[in-house]
């Protein structure tokens, strides 16, 4: 049982490095393209504008001026992808994270301040998403040099304020999808009222859920989730469950975040701890089973087996049933390569392939 729970799947998502362009000789450049062509002039102008605007965001303290600058940065980034490199080189990602950390939650009677704060945060998240869209160098830079931990700390104040919390969670989900059409989802759910209405609205938004490009943004949302807000908890876990259902790749990406280790202790607490509300417990249990369909780490499986036995030595049947459902996982170990990619196997042993039983090649063709 233990082995089957552990080994259904190990998903890895590796993006093949983009081949470096072959440099052209100076003579070929002079012949094929004038030095001062209109295209080059426009590109250089956009690059210079990007530098100036990022520097201006650093220096200004006026919130309205920052909003105007952020809107221009987003516009020019959409128009010309070459400005994404300049944005990174000018520490644009660091500037955005710092900006989010300086946004103060509005006062309860400050409607204008609430609007300004929400718009500045929206633009910052939209630029983060656009800056990493289809740009592996920026994805790696943000992941390794800036970090999602820094992003989590920067939005902590906004995520704990009742006037901005729904917006922030919508922005985090939108960042993970690199699609801001569902950014207002949680605000709409709050206005709708109860959990039943929330489930219906999430079903309407489900058609907009695409691939998860930045799964760590979802992990930030899970870490920031307020434990006393049942509606927001239910809505977020329902969204994650729908994302897991929408594609196998999304399901594997969510499993790789370690959600099993987050969901299980809350669903099956120690004896004497407070139990979750019924509807919240149901959606979390559903999401947990979808995660276990993909497998569990050694640490997660050990925690599940440990919790299966009560303090009096009797079996806890709900946990045993969870283990049985994990045994039915159907996915084998595999590598998933995104986009233009290759897998190189370097083996010096005389036996050849490192997989003694061979391997299967599976592909999906979209016509």
Automatic annotation (TrEMBL):
Q: Which domain of life is it from?
A: Eukaryota
Q: Which residues form the Alfy-like armadillo-like repeat domain?
A: 38-297
| Record key words, sorted | WD repeat
The UniProt record lists the keyword S-adenosyl-L-methionine? no
Q: Which InterPro entries match?
A: Alfy-like_Arm-like, BEACH_domain_protein
Q: What is this protein called?
A: Alfy-like armadillo-like repeat domain-containing protein
According to its UniProt entry, this protein's organism is: Exidia glandulosa HHB12029
């Amino acid at each position: 049982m233990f082995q089957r729970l552990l080994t259904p799947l190990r998903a890895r998502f590796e993006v093949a490095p983009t081949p470096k362009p072959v440099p052209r000789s100076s003579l070929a450049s002079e012949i094929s393209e004038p030095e001062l062509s209109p295209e080059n002039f426009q590109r250089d102008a956009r690059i210079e504008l990007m530098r100036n605007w990022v520097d201006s965001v650093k220096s200004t303290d006026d919130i309205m001026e920052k909003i105007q600058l952020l809107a221009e940065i987003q516009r020019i980034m959409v128009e010309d992808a070459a400005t994404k490199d300049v944005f990174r080189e000018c520490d644009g990602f660091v500037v955005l994270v710092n900006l989010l950390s300086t946004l103060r939650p509005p006062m309860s009677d400050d409607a204008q301040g609430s609007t300004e704060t929400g718009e500045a945060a929206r633009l910052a998240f939209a630029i983060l998403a656009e800056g990493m869209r289809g740009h592996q160098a920026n994805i790696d830079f943000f992941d390794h040099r800036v970090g999602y931990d820094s992003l989590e700390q920067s939005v902590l104040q906004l995520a704990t304020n009742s006037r901005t919390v729904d917006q922030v969670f919508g922005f985090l989900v939108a960042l993970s999808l690199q699609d801001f059409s569902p950014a207002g989802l949680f605000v709409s759910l709050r206005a709708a009222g109860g959990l039943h209405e929330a489930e219906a609205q999430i079903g309407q938004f489900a058609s907009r859920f695409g691939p998860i490009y930045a799964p760590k943004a979802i992990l930030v949302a899970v870490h920031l989730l307020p434990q006393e807000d049942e509606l927001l908890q239910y809505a977020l876990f329902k969204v994650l469950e729908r994302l897991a259902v929408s594609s196998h790749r999304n399901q594997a990406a969510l499993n790789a975040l370690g959600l099993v280790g987050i969901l299980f202790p809350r669903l099956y607490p120690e004896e004497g701890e407070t139990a979750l509300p019924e509807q919240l417990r149901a959606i979390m249990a559903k999401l947990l089973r979808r995660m276990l369909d993909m497998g569990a780490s050694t640490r997660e499986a050990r925690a599940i087996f440990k919790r299966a036995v009560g303090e009096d030595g009797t079996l806890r049947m709900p946990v045993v049933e969870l283990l049985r459902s994990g045994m039915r996982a159907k996915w084998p170990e595999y590598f998933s390569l995104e986009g233009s990619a290759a897998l190189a196997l370097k083996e010096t042993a005389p036996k050849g392939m490192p997989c003694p039983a061979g391997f299967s090649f599976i592909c999906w063709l979209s016509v």
